[in-house]
Design goal:
The complex is a heterodimer of chains A (462) and B (118). By secondary structure, chain A is an alpha/beta fold. Chain A is built from 17 helices and six strands. In chain B, helix 3 packs antiparallel against helix 4. The chains are: A alpha/beta (462), B mainly alpha (118).
Chain lengths: 462, 118
């Protein structure tokens, strides 16, 4: 056992290699050019980690490991190859739940092995309890997030009366059973605290509404990292601790970015309830006049423009108008018109979702700009087309203190010479708030299906 | 330093590394970032392998003498399930990331950039 090849340092050095590969992999995501390589580096890191672990002296039976890896491959690969890009948030939520459940099972298994070898001590017991609880919250929270995104559950917030008290009670209950477990380390208190943590995860995500889902998905991403870190503590494995911390901070940063983009505090998202009371805001202003435009009018304006910006939203993907948008892009580009896309951070259902949807329809990434990069350009733009977006161009977020959106950063589409908003009807947007932009003099609405309207414009451009 | 304290050092320092690395990721790639981090959070497979690879005969679970842990097969199934779930994440996360990242290619000007006509 003490040959240099099987010493603890041997394993630790390979685990260090894997950690470094993960860091380099994430670092390569700083640019689309290097990103594919980054993903490959992370894959190599994972392979090194698995191969090293298979050599560990504790590992004596390979049947179940091999069966598990094959099962994972058979289930995941076809799914990952087929999944639609619009369904990416659901997939990610489902995958988070698996990490959480896996962490719970590992905690139970580690408890059984260590208890059989009489290796339990107070520190390890606390680590096991924490690992299992964080894993359980990740699991049940992600299951609810998945169900909401997949529309198996209504996406509107479900507000139980006194839910904050229930949650506090659950946290207290978990604490109580952690002490029970420390006093008498048996499986029973361990399983009870895990079940309480499962219930907590359900109750934490149920009251969060559909509009806040980008934050929730990022938050669960972060939890899955913390769960991996906690598992690392139980195994005294620094690879797991470090990797979990990387993932955890990544998810935390994404949650923060999403909160800023929606002008929501993290605490208020977690406490939930957004979107429950906002549906009455549209009625008061419905009498004002809007101008409408036909696709031919838009095509005429585009033909005479020299600078055009398209603001796409999730509605564009819902209407499956990406391909028509790409044709429009190519046609205008060929005419020598400066055409770009402007993306708000919360366009889509998860961070960066809209970029992926545009990339899928083969719109080159160098004409796609983030809000901060392009916001100064709107005032010198001839025509802005808002396709499937609404709240992210609402000037009320800047000007109207009484608007629920007030304070949210927006794309300054209203500053352009001419704005066309593609809309199915006068229904308010995702947040249920009326859009002041529609009543501006420089704004016209193009009513109808986003795909049909875009296609009609492409055809009219000749 | 106790092993736990060393672990806490690694944890805190890694959070700082993560903080700096992740802010460098371009916002356009935040969805693939999430898929990649998802795949690498399945590093818990290391723990799963250590559970699934244990020879259950050495755990003293066999005798039905009230050790309370049930038959060895249940233990092995638990390990199998943990490995499978983590493996789903690894394959699913990496494959879907690769698919997404491959889309982010600057096209070698499939559109000929004609000079302005006006």
């Amino acid at each position: 056992m003490d040959s240099p090849v099987d010493s603890p340092d041997f394993f630790a050095s390979f685990y260090l290699v894997a950690t470094v590969l993960f860091i380099l992999g994430l670092k390569s995501l700083s640019h689309p050019k290097t990103a594919v390589r980054g993903n490959l580096l992370a894959m190599v890191g994972m392979t090194v980690a698995i191969a090293t672990t298979l050599r560990a002296p504790e590992v004596q039976v390979y049947t179940w490991i091999a069966a598990g890896i094959v099962a994972g491959m058979v289930i995941a690969v076809p799914l990952a190859l087929k999944i639609k890009m619009t369904a990416m948030p659901q997939l990610v939520a489902a995958l988070h739940s698996f990490v959480g459940l896996s962490a719970v099972l590992i905690a139970v298994g580690t408890f059984i092995t260590h208890s059989a070898h009489h290796e339990l001590n107070g520190t390890l017991e606390i680590e096991l309890a924490l690992g299992s609880a964080i894993g359980a919250v990740t699991f049940s929270g992600s299951v609810i997030a998945f169900a909401k995104l997949q529309e198996l559950l209504r996406s509107s917030p479900l507000l139980l009366p006194g839910r904050h008290w229930i949650n506090m009670g659950l946290v207290a209950g978990i604490g109580f059973f952690v002490f029970q477990f420390l006093a008498e380390p048996t499986l029973f208190p361990f399983l009870v605290l895990t079940l309480l943590a499962l219930a907590l995860g359900f109750l934490l995500v149920l009251p969060i509404g559909g509009a806040d889902m980008p934050v929730v998905v990022s938050m669960l991403n972060s939890y899955s990292g913390w769960a991996a870190s906690a598992t690392g503590f139980t195994l005294s494995n620094h690879l797991l601790i470090a990797t979990g911390a990387l993932v955890g901070s990544s998810g935390a940063i994404l949650s923060y970015i999403m909160c800023i983009a929606m002008n929501r505090s993290f605490v208020s998202v977690i406490l939930g309830g957004f979107g429950a009371t906002a549906s009455d805001a549209g009625a008061a202003t419905a009498k004002k006049n809007v101008q409408s435009a036909a696709p031919d009018d838009v095509a005429f304006m585009l033909d005479n423009a020299s600078k055009v910006i398209i603001v796409p939203g999730y509605g564009l993907a819902v209407a499956q108008a990406q391909h028509a948008a790409k044709e429009l892009f190519e046609k205008l580009h060929r005419k020598g018109i400066d055409i770009r896309f402007a993306i708000h951070p919360v366009a889509g259902r998860m961070p960066g979702h809209m970029n992926v949807l545009l990339a899928e329809s083969e719109i080159p990434y160098d004409v796609v700009f983030e809000m901060e990069e392009i916001n100064n350009e709107f005032s010198t733009t001839d025509v802005v087309l808002v396709i499937g977006a609404n709240d992210v161009v609402n000037p009320d977020a800047k000007n109207n203190r009484s608007s629920p959106l007030y304070g949210m950063p927006i794309l300054d589409a209203y500053k352009a010479h001419r704005v066309y908003v593609f809309k199915r009807s006068m229904k308010p947007g995702y947040a249920g708030v009326d859009n002041a932009l529609f009543y501006y003099d420089n704004c016209s609405l193009v009513f109808g299906d986003a795909k049909a309207s875009t296609q009609a414009i492409v055809n009219a451009l000749g | 330093m106790s092993p736990t304290m060393i672990g806490i050092y690694v944890f805190v320092l890694s959070c700082f590394v993560g903080y700096h690395v992740i802010w460098g990721v371009t916002p356009a790639l935040h969805t693939p970032l999430m898929a990649v981090t998802n795949a690498i959070s399945a590093i818990v497979i290391v723990g799963a392998i250590l559970v699934a690879g244990v020879n259950p005969d050495q755990l003293g679970l066999v005798g039905a003498d009230g050790t309370g842990f049930g038959p060895p097969l249940a233990f092995q199934l638990l390990g199998f399930l943990a490995v499978s779930l983590a493996a789903i994440n690894i394959f699913g996360g990496f494959v879907v990331s690769h698919r997404m990242l491959s889309m982010f290619k600057k096209k070698p000007k499939s559109v000929p950039s004609a000079p302005p006509q006006k």
